Structures
1.
Amino acid sequence: MKKSNLLLLFVTIFAVSTFGFGQNTEYSQTIRGTVIDKLTQVTLPGATVIVLNTNPLIGTTSDINGEFRIENIGLGRQNIQVSFVGYTTRTISNLNLTSGRQTVVTVELEELILKLDEVVITASQEKDRPINKMATVSARSFTVEETERFAGSLGDPSRMAANYAGVSMTNDSRNDIIIRGNSPIGVLWRLDGVEIPNPNHFGAIGTTGGPVSMLNNNLLSNSDFFTSAFPAEYGNAMSGVFDLNMRSGNNQKREYVGQIGFNGFELGAEGPFKKGGKGSYIANYRYSTLGLMSAMGLEFGVGTAIPQYQDLTFKIDLPGTKWGRFSLIGLGGLSYIELYESKEAEADDNGDSNYDYGGVDLDYGSDMGVLGLSHLYFLSKNTRIQSFLSVQATRATTQIDSLLFDEKGTLIPNS
């Protein structure tokens, strides 16, 4: 009876899969951000920012630092349009506003080149245009919202990319992707300019996929995906490239978020280091949903094969210093699973195992961690230097113990 009540409680919790909490209960929210030049990364003061489909129209302009703030916007998905003299107008669609967290965006505008005696027609939104200007073909950008809304993506960039032309998955149990017939091993992962190892739980060394992603879309920003013809800056890639960007934390208000989903139970926090400063932090911790429920006594009918994993992601952003802009990112995860046929046989009255693990007790685990430091310094208005320093570590372990059974197929104790 207790287990039934506990299961009913968790079904009720999963009915409300996501929740956020801030300092006050709100029915409107704020959109903040910075408008910058896409090529030089210089801020653009005086840019016009409006929220589409509002009556009366809601909008503002960016200040001397290129920053803007629009308050009292209704919750849900909103679209904003950013324009500036001499630059192309950009529309950002499907910004998801929740009551517990302000939405902070960085808008990059491209210089507008005008030609006489010519008419140029452009779409209101060009999703196929990558962020990297050196990419000319076989590349496209994707948003965080796409990792949530594409069928079967489960908040995972790899599963989302499987919806693109020329990209497919090996099977539904893992997120390894095949790009134009090439091996999944040839996929390169980058996070904020730093090359990282396989960012997936239960991923073997040398592979690029796994059953569950360590990447948290609550911390990601708009990113690029390449399927071929990579720019020269990408090396060690034969199949495709994920060039991911992490967003910076809210530098004006401390916010907290909790979420329950397929990827696990998670808690996150972000905010400024000090009031009035430009520096910010953002961090998110996640733990296996099945692992936590199993520890509470719930059974899922899979024996000891309960995936146990946890991961931590963070970013510290320090802009506006006289030495330039410093960013420190971290991503790490631990995962293991036990396939113990002996425990199942010992639990059965007849000594027979209810689960066939091949007559062995198997322990498998994989760990990954990366720490990256980036520095951006402007030598002049049109010249900048960006450098990176990173430390990475990976480990995969497999332990197998063979079991002995008698002629009736019953496990011999202590074998």
Note: The helical segments are 2-15, 144-149, 157-161, 289-295, 341-347.
2.
Amino acid sequence: MSGLGFRSLGTVNWYVNTLEDEGYLYRTKGSNGKRALTLTQEHATHPEACLPLLGLIAAGEPIEALETPNSVTVPSSLVRPDNFVLQVKGQSMIDEQIQDGDYIVVKKTATARSGQIVVAIINDEATLKCYVPKSDRIELHPRNPKFPIITIKKTDNFYINGVLLYSFREYAS
């Protein structure tokens, strides 16, 4: 317990219960008759799974939102029915360590909290930006000072298509 930095058995129990509730662990009796924790078969044998790669997302000026269905291998913990992958095109989010060519895992949702990185659709064009709602407008902030803030006008057809969960990049092997 102290090796993991926990001071309380209650904290350890909370984490174990959460992992059990999420389907990662189940409780058994070990061969010696004592309690044991075992990885569920799904997570023990399939550490990776696939999510749909739906196309490109602009990290810069918005680009036309086109789907180009494919799939990408991701950790199985990210596989949920409402998650999908996009490939980043552009440099507007480099201060968030999101580079041109990176892949992002997005949770499909129509709402976001201020400061979350979102897939925003503006007049049928998609962009990846930091969502900043104001009392009288919505702003989409890049994370690169070389790019301008996008202010959503009342005449714009705007909606949030999802929030960023995870980003990764592939390196040549």
Note: The two ends are 39 Å apart (CA to CA).
3.
Amino acid sequence: MYGKEFICSVMGFCFGLIGFVLNPNILSGFVFVTSLVAMIYIYKSKRTREVIIADSVVKARIYEKFYAPIYAPEGETVLIEKAPENFYRIFTKKGEYLLIIHTSTKGIGYEYKKISEVDYFKEIA
């Protein structure tokens, strides 16, 4: 689940904590604080990497469903706007759609709802 870097930083944090409790000096405090900062940094970078990968998978799914000749002018792609957490707004030639992502223990489910009939490519041009 977690990479070697995160596990090593957690172990360093634990050793730094034990060393600081047994022998409180500047070096033990430095090891403790440095390993804590490293652990937080690695955890946050892992979380952002997971979000970026999940977002690119969803966008690939959207581009598969709303392909160019029907939903967008030739040579262009549909416009995608990320709304709050599990919602995406998709603007096409045939109107505006809302993608709702359902996550459960069985997997990920996608639900598309049509919101309006406006041709957004004519509105933009």
Note: The chain is about 55% helix and 25% strand.
